[in-house]
Amino acid sequence: MRVATFLFFALAAVVPAQQQDNATTVWVNVPKAGSLPAGVTHHTYRSASMGHDVGYLIYLPPDYARETARRYPVIYNLHGAGGNELHGQLAAEILQEGILSKRWPPMIMVFPNGGRFTLYKDSYDGKYMGETTVIKELIPHIDKTYRTIASRGGRAIEGFSMGGRGSTKLAMKYPEMFCSLFNQAGNVYHVSEQPSNAYLGPDRARYAENDAYLLLKKNLGQIKGKMRIQIACGTKDDGHIKTVREFHQALLDAGLDHTYFEIEGLAHKQTEMLQLYRTVWFDYHVESFRRAKLDFK
């Protein structure tokens, strides 16, 4: 009981800091010339919900310009807390390396800007639309602008830390949009049990709408057998491993086949995690796309 009480007070205490962090969000971050990996470019789209432009990075595979009749599956990579669209570029480097070596077939990867600390939730006051801007603005923009496979079977979502938590919530809430989820050290807590705060506001329904555990139960019929789920976390990741294990257990209780592994001795270090599994990092999403019966070579 003491642990639960401590957790609740800790969550309540971070709300003012969360709002402050979001207030310093820069929604368009222009990269320095020559700083982006091969195949990666920076662009913007207009966010109608927030009334301003938002930046994103996109990786296009080497044959994209040449194979003009071909459509490609897309991986959406969500950044962690304090990040923006320029974070996560190592994943693009690894993907490019694997495609060139024929380890993986060509795919597109998109790096959204979800705000510094939105947790990919929409704020009560409508200023920080971390969920809406990814799901209802960016993804339609990508499907309209690029030759994507614009269906559930052609989309995967992933992220590290806040990005892992956010991708899990979004996948549970919109299972009809994704065939594959990879939560990388993203702690998944019970939002519905959190005290009221200024970010989500007084309406308790908003808390339930952002609770991955409740969304899992609500949308189980659309998830089971239709979405592949992978979760990874380091055993020394003290701030995240507890709820990662709890969500893993929730998946087991729901009868969902999924892949779960803990990395012995690893703390909350994204680069080390990617480097450890560099040669197999995208195997899971590739298999998800194949099981979705894409013409995927």
What does the secondary structure layout of this molecule look like, with pairings?
Blueprint: H1 2-23, E1 40-47, E2 52-59, E3 74-78, H2 89-100, E4 108-111, H3 130-145, E5 155-160, H4 162-173, E6 180-184, H5 204-208, H6 212-218, H7 220-223, E7 228-234, H8 241-253, E8 259-263, H9 270-276, H10 283-291
Parallel strand pairs: 3-4, 3-5, 5-6, 6-7, 7-8
Antiparallel strand pairs: 1-2, 2-4
From the spread of the alpha carbons, the general shape counts as: globular
Compressed to H and E, one letter per element, the order equals HEEEHEHEHEHHHEHEHH
Domain module count: 1
The biggest sheet, with number of strands, parallel, antiparallel or mixed sense and barrel status, is: 8 strands, mixed
Instruction: Classify the oligomer.
Output: single chain
Number of strands: 8
Runs with pLDDT <50, length 5+?
Answer: 1-16
Instruction: Count every helix, treating DSSP H or I runs of 4 or more residues as helices.
Output: 10
Query: Structural class from helices and strands?
Result: alpha/beta
What fold name goes in the CATH topology slot? Rossmann fold
In the CATH hierarchy, what is the superfamily?
Answer: Alpha/Beta hydrolase fold, catalytic domain
CATH 2nd-level architecture? 3-Layer(aba) Sandwich
CATH class wording:
Alpha Beta
Helix content: 25-40%
What order do the strands of the largest sheet run in, or round the barrel if closed? 1-2-4-3-5-6-7-8
Radius of gyration: 18 Å
Instruction: Give the termini distance in whole angstroms.
Output: 53 Å
Name the average pLDDT. 93
Q: What is the percentage of strand-forming residues?
A: 15-25%
